[in-house]
Amino acid sequence: MINTVYNSWCRDIAGEGLLFIAGPCSAETEEQILATAQGVKKAGGHILRAGIWKPRTRPGNFEGVGAIGLKWVQRAKQETGLLTAVEVANPNHVELALQYDIDVLWIGARTSVNPFAVQEIANALQGTDKIVLIKNPVNPDLALWIGALERIDKAGIDKIGAVHRGFSSYKKMPYRNEPLWQIPIDLKTRFPALPLINDPSHISGKHENVFDIAQTAVQLLFDGLMIETHIAPEKAWSDARQQITPDELAAMIPEFVLPKDKMFDADLLKSFKLLRKDIDDIDTELVQLLKNRQNKIEEIGRLKYKENVAIYQKERWLNILDRAKNNARENDINQKFVEQLFRLLHQESLKLQHHLFKRLKSGKK
Ligand code: PEP
Ligand code: MN
Fold first, then answer.
1. For residue 239, which of 102, 50, 41, 14 has the smallest C-alpha distance?
2. What atom in ligand 1 is closest to the CA of residue 239?
């Protein structure tokens, strides 16, 4: 199982600091790769990334330069000493990447979603000592992500890492891919030794938001960042909107505030303990309040049944929502959050009353 020494490869490369993987979405020309590599090196990056084969949503878009790009990447490595990383989506890609001595092979989000494809890649990787990174699948399914990691682990690869690049969503939102931070956090909780790398570029979809997302990841104790970097982002052949320049990368890297994992400090630990105790007490109270609310929901449900009144009452619901939002505003809590919470509460109340209705109708108490 994925639990042992995986973080050592990451520490070996980045020491106690963050691991930086940077480079273009796609390799386009030899000059572009070499110039980007120089910039990434100067900025303090560790690994040069480049997409050689591009999984595009629709055909007809630029699908990558193919194997010739591996030569450019290899040359960039010779010239800068950077390690190199490319995306692999099938055994043929793996074979070529190994042939060109690429150091890091990553499995993209459109591939990690498919256990057949991951297994084929795992089989092709058998016996290598390369670093393998697995991006989260496009849909928010932690088990599927873990499954992909396990397939690589079972192939005997022991330098593994996970890359969080956000999740597809129909929601109207300021991101290209929704971060859903709880998912990578759950992964890290289950596998503390597994290096976790954040890809703020594919989450944000916009170069101006890359830093904020990356800083959030850093605060959440991610081990590294994969940042799309291009010498002329506006002219990039893919993902032009989200790439930053090597100079921007160089300016960004020193800005990250690294939280210290100071949990060993006795005084600090005591403060945490006290505050956490308070939070636990509040949580217990919250659940008790929910129980009280549920009792009232049941009482009113019985009345609705008796008087044959519909369970869903639109006016009442709009009124609940309105009150909740006003209360949120007055108490300076995020109104959107409170709204979501009350939608959930209301949904649950309707469900409870519906079950109650069925129970009473069948003659039970
Ligand atoms: C990429 O890294 O350029 C890429 C295609 O990413 P993802 O698999 O996360 O969409
Ligand atoms: Mn990209």
1. 50
2. 3
* Global pTM value: 0.78
CB-side exposure of 215: number of CA atoms within 13 Å?
11
Q: Is 21 in the pocket of ligand 1 (CB under 6 A)?
A: no
Distance 101 CA to ligand 2 centre (A): 22
Within-domain flag for 320 = yes
Q: Identify the residue whose C-alpha is closest to ligand 1 atom 4.
A: 108
| DSSP three-state, residue 311 | coil
CA-nearest residue for atom 1, ligand 1, is 25
| 365 residues of the chain, pLDDT tens digit each | 555 556 689 999 999 899 999 999 999 999 999 999 999 999 999 999 999 999 888 888 899 999 999 999 999 999 999 999 999 999 999 999 999 999 999 999 999 999 999 999 999 999 899 999 999 999 999 999 999 999 999 999 989 999 999 999 998 899 999 999 999 999 998 998 899 999 999 999 999 999 999 999 998 889 999 999 999 999 999 999 999 999 999 999 999 988 876 555 777 778 888 899 999 999 999 999 999 999 999 999 999 999 999 999 999 999 999 999 999 999 999 999 999 999 999 999 999 999 999 999 999 87
Q: What is the CATH number of the domain that holds 276?
A: 1.20.59.10
Give the whole-angstrom CA distance, residue 43 versus residue 23.
11
Q: Is 164 in the pocket of ligand 1 (CB under 6 A)?
A: no
| Claim to verify: residue 40 and residue 110 sit in the same structural domain | yes
Consecutive H or E run containing 106 = strand 104-107
